[in-house]
UniProtKB/TrEMBL annotation:
One of its GO terms (molecular function) is pyridoxal phosphate binding. Belongs to the class-I pyridoxal-phosphate-dependent aminotransferase family. InterPro entries: Aminotransferase_I/II_large (IPR004839), Class-I_PLP-dep_aminotransf (IPR050859), PyrdxlP-dep_Trfase (IPR015424), PyrdxlP-dep_Trfase_major (IPR015421). Its cofactor is pyridoxal 5'-phosphate. Keywords: Aminotransferase, Pyridoxal phosphate, Transferase. It comes from Coniophora puteana (strain RWD-64-598). Residues 95-448 form the Aminotransferase class I/classII large domain. This is PLP-dependent transferase. One of its GO terms (biological process) is alpha-amino acid metabolic process. Pfam families: Aminotran_1_2 (PF00155). It comes from the Eukaryota.
Amino acid sequence: MTDHLPDSFYQPFLSDAAKIRKPSPIHVLVPLESTPGVISLMAGKPNGDMFPFRSFKFTIAPTTLPNYAESLVSGAPLPGEEVEVELSGDTLRDGLQYGPTEGLPKLHEWYYGLQERYHGRKRDESWILTLGSGSQDLIFKAANSVLNPGDVVLIEAPAYGGVIPIFQNLQCEFVEIPMDAHGLRSQDLREVLNSWPSDKPKPKILYTVPYGSNPGGFTTSEDRKKEVIELAREHNFLIFEDDPYFYLYFGDAPRPASYFSLEQHMPTKDGSPRVGRVLRFDSMSKVASGGLRLGIASGPAPLVKAINSHTSSSSLQSFHLGQAIMIALFEKWGYEGFDAHIRSVSTFYRAKRDIFQKVMKECMSGLAEWTPPEAGMFFWFKLLLNPNANAGDDDGDSSDLISNKAFKNGVLALPGAMFYPNGRKSAHVRAAFSLLSEEQVREALRRLRETVLKEREGV
């Protein structure tokens, strides 16, 4: 018996739209052009000789130096010298031309190696990957490939606000699974599934951001992830692992393994295949460039192929020039250079987190409660709006205070209510610490403190 689920397993998971979606009959044949000895009269590609671009040159920062990130945070002179990279030749020609829907082959090879390096997943284990215009583009296509209107979605709460409309537009029913300082509360998920009505179809997917979740900043522990995988097997759902902050982990403990990694190591109770319930979404937006729009989906071939079919019928392909730029960067770095850059990135955001934490203690102690994040770029804190509240009282709602009163006082943040799919009230606030200097953080939190104190006077 193979250790991965067969392709036929995914047929019930595909949406009605995915089952009838037909790719471009011409684009399907494009890979045949690379057959040795074949002369192609097929594709209507423009002749690359008439493209005006001959080369691009860019410089990259000396991120391999251990004190690079500290210099950026402190404002000290940057150590080392910038490195020049040239994009030209075949890589540039491929980036400028029509090409494979799933992305440029060189970048595919790089990411197969990266997934093995960070998640222990080798490319011959019945999974494939595809490249998209950011991970949200891939999540949108995955959701539309799996969900029918009215389907139920298990979703962590609070949840990433950008993904909620994707499911809302499919008229999905949300079942919120709470989070706390240790991430997704797997025991709550178990209770929800064990009490599921017998006459109601069970959910097809669980959506979760396991590292430095947006907005909560929570990182889900390995033990909880293992329980979630067990529940996925028991109750037959897929895990959409949206992980844009994986490389922004800066916790003191070793980084917990991903769902994508863990599922291959956990034996099933009945000896059935272990691998194939995780569809993983990675992003280069937080570590290389948000504007290049490079996302990666890795997982079971039928699901990834459904994503590609959607891309083929909508935009033909993602941004290949951006992919060519990343190829030139990665070839200059190698995997060791990428590792060094990631260490620098996590060091940088840890320093930003520490500054925000320090000023929060100075300005908001007694006015808010929070757990410092171990990854990502967000602080999630609950405002103590009623100084006379007793335990168990309604926590209140931060929406008016944050959206109106704090904004009028010169500070802009996001009220917690917008991150709950079912529209509940929340006294929480999401604050991003990625861009601000210590001086700006101090002034922003001083204004927020002033606003909260004024609000409490009126209680």
